[in-house]
Amino acid sequence: MLKSVHHIAIICSDYPASKKFYSEILELEIIREVYRKERDSYKLDLALNGEYIIELFSFPNSPKRPSHPEALGLRHLAFAVDDLANMILKLNSKGIKTEDIRMDPQTGKKFTFFSDPDDLPLELYEE
Questions:
Q1: Where is the VOC domain positioned along the sequence (predicted)?
Q2: Residue 12: its H or E element
Q3: Neighbours of 13 (CB within 10 A)
Q4: Closest by CA position to 97, among listed 80, 70, 83, 117
Q5: What percent of the chain shows pLDDT beyond 90?
């Protein structure tokens, strides 16, 4: 039986830019960083509130993944927030553009989208 989501793996094109984005802009905690010489690849383990959630990888010459229009496969990653407006202001002050706030018609909750350095769609969902 499935117990929980263990982690999400993300392959980036510019490791320093993505490391900065996830660790400094989104303020995820770096648990471990490993350079794998045989693969010319970095692996960065990141946590949110002490829980391991993301493996950030770099690989040479990875193909681009289409994000727009919406491609088949993983659509986006969503992060829960208590105060959506405050989080949007924080991201905008760090140079991250966010879409207009939308309302989930089923739950009445507010949400918005923004992108990581490789245009991976990320969602903020107010709880």
A1: 4-127
A2: strand 8-12
A3: 17
A4: 117
A5: 83
Nearest-angstrom CA–CA distance, 35 and 56:
12
* DSSP calls for 41-98: EEEEEEEETTEEEEEEEE-TTPPP---SSPPSS---EEEEES-HHHHHHHHHHTT---
Question: What are the φ and ψ backbone dihedral angles of 70, each rounded to 5 degrees?
Answer: -55, 120
How much is the average pLDDT of 64-81? 84
The full set of domains in the chain, from first to last, is 1-61 (3.10.180.10), 75-127 (3.10.180.10)
Taking the model in full, what pTM does it have? 0.89
- 14-52: pLDDT as tens digits: 999 999 999 999 999 999 999 999 999 999 999 999 999
3-class secondary structure, 114: strand
**Could you give the CA distance from residue 113 to residue 99 in angstroms, rounded to a whole number?**
5
Helix (H) or strand (E) run with residue 9 in it: strand 8-12
Q: How far apart are CA 60 and CA 12, in angstroms?
A: 10
